[in-house]
Design goal:
The protein contains 13 helices and 13 strands. Helix 6 packs across helix 9, helix 6 packs across helix 10 and helix 9 crosses helix 10. It has a 9-stranded mixed β-sheet, with helices on both faces. Strands 2-3 form a two-stranded antiparallel ribbon. The chain folds into 2 domains: 267 residues, Spore Coat Polysaccharide Biosynthesis Protein SpsA, Chain A (Alpha-Beta Complex); 33 residues, no CATH class. The termini are far apart. The chain is globular and about 60 Å long. The chain is an alpha/beta fold and 312 residues long. Its EC number is 2.7.7.9. Pfam families: NTP_transferase (PF00483). It comes from Kineococcus rhizosphaerae. Belongs to the UDPGP type 2 family. GO terms for molecular function: UTP:glucose-1-phosphate uridylyltransferase activity.
Length: 312
């Protein structure tokens, strides 16, 4: 068995979550609070991401952080004083919710230092990851637990080896907002063979409408490629540039496949989509969903037509 043949069956057990960004799109809220701690209903966005990793069996989680991110560590650490207080009050429901984040898995932290892009953040994880395949989860995308994307990606790697990237189909006029794939069908439903990737192409130059969403299953071969990857768009080291090399090269760990995701995904990457994510997730909650849906229906029904207030 060759080294390349041996890789696909290797268990995937580590997750990397880049969380060093400044969250400038959410200022002033993120002036003193990491954007990853912004609540989606009553749970920080970052907890949804860690929970997704753990559901897929990735209980060894590394967060790539930066300055002013201490609250991330505090959230996944025990707060003994709070737990004792809730226990004394007999509030078992809140105690269980507080302990959920502590008991998820083993969470480690390393600072990125000088943030030089997603590719640089992934490279920082090399010492922790070692010679193992690993998953990268970006915090702007929350994937509904009823649609287990990571399980599918792990199965694709077990069959094909190399790296696996998650895509979604977007309207052509939106593809300039994403990394975009040059891909060919494989004969498997919603699985493609990737031959190239372009970071935020012009609409007229985009090779497809397959947009990268924030889930990557990477072979450790990516680390050697990242060490040789020069800064790209924005002066940053782009992970898409390294994946382009892996897609077009030959050797152990090379080759890239894609999974076209058609499930439920909540985008918390900008203000409007963040609000939509909160409303959609809250409306499905058993405790508040019914009342919220009733209020939304009433609010929309009574809402003035666009421009009506200006004409009054």
């Amino acid at each position: 068995m060759t080294e390349r043949d041996a890789r696909p069956g290797r268990t995937v057990r580590k997750a990397v979550i880049p969380a060093a960004g400044q969250g400038t799109r959410f200022l002033p809220a993120t002036k003193a609070m990491p954007k990853e701690m912004l609540p989606v209903v009553d749970t920080p966005a970052i907890q949804y991401i860690v929970e997704e990793a753990v559901r897929a069996g990735l209980t060894d989680v590394l967060m790539i952080t930066g300055r002013n991110k201490r609250s991330l560590e505090d959230h996944f650490d025990r707060n003994v004083e709070l737990e004792v207080g809730l226990e004394a009050k007999g509030d078992q429901a809140k105690l269980a919710r507080v302990q959920e984040s502590t008991d998820l898995g083993q969470v480690h932290y390393v600072r990125q230092g000088d943030p030089k892009g997603l590719g640089h953040a992934v490279a920082v994880a090399e010492q922790h990851v070692g010679d193992e395949p690993f998953v990268v989860l970006l915090g702007d995308d929350i994937v509904d637990p009823r649609d287990p994307l990571l399980d599918t990606m792990i199965k694709v790697r077990e069959e094909h080896g190399g790296s696996v990237v998650a895509f979604m189909e977007v309207p052509r006029d939106q593809i300039h907002l994403y990394g975009c794939a040059v891909a060919e069908p494989t004969g498997q439903e919603d699985v493609v063979k990737v031959s190239g990737l372009v970071e935020k192409p012009k609409t007229e130059e985009a090779p497809s409408n397959l947009a990268i969403i924030g889930r990557y299953l990477l072979d450790p071969a990516v680390f050697a490629v990242l060490r040789e990857t020069p800064p790209g768009k924005g002066g940053e080291i782009q992970l898409t540039d390294a994946l382009q090399v892996l897609a077009q090269g030959e050797g152990p760990g090379y080759g890239v496949h894609g999974v076209v995701f058609r499930g439920r995904r909540y985008d918390t990457g900008d203000k409007l989509d963040y609000i939509k994510a909160v409303v959609r997730l809250a409306s499905e909650r058993e405790d508040i969903g019914g009342e919220l849906r009733d209020w939304l229906a009433e609010y929309v029904r009574d809402m003035p037509a666009p421009g009506a207030a200006a004409q009054a």
